Amino acid sequence: MADEVCRTRVVLEIVGDKWALLIVRMLRDGPRRFTELKREIEGISQRMLTVTLRDLERDGILTRTVHNVMPPHVSYELTAMGRTLREATAPLLEWSVEHLAKIEKARADYDAR
């Protein structure tokens, strides 16, 4: 049992990673190209996006497809397991959006003290 609890930390690292959750959220409506993800996820560097996509692919959360067109491009899509992660984390992301203004105000009030 203790071993299982320790191993769940690996999964919680995914859930606790802000970039991973934002990518999972961005893929909710279907496949997206790297450039679309980069453009729409404010603040993420190209390197961090690449690393996070590789990690999510390795964990079975998304698939990477190379399209043999000219010019070639790559798209990313949630797997069945990735879609269940999206469903599980959607309330957390919605809570974040709903409470963002209150959190920003609380931080400003705290910092002003």
TrEMBL record:
It comes from the Bacteria. It holds the Pfam family HxlR. GO terms for molecular function: DNA binding. The keyword Transcription regulation applies. Keywords: DNA-binding, Transcription, Transcription regulation. SUPFAM superfamilies: Winged helix' DNA-binding domain. PROSITE patterns: HTH_HXLR. Residues 6-104 form the HTH hxlR-type domain. The keyword Transcription regulation applies. InterPro entries: HTH_HxlR (IPR002577), WH-like_DNA-bd_sf (IPR036388), WH_DNA-bd_sf (IPR036390). This is Helix-turn-helix transcriptional regulator.
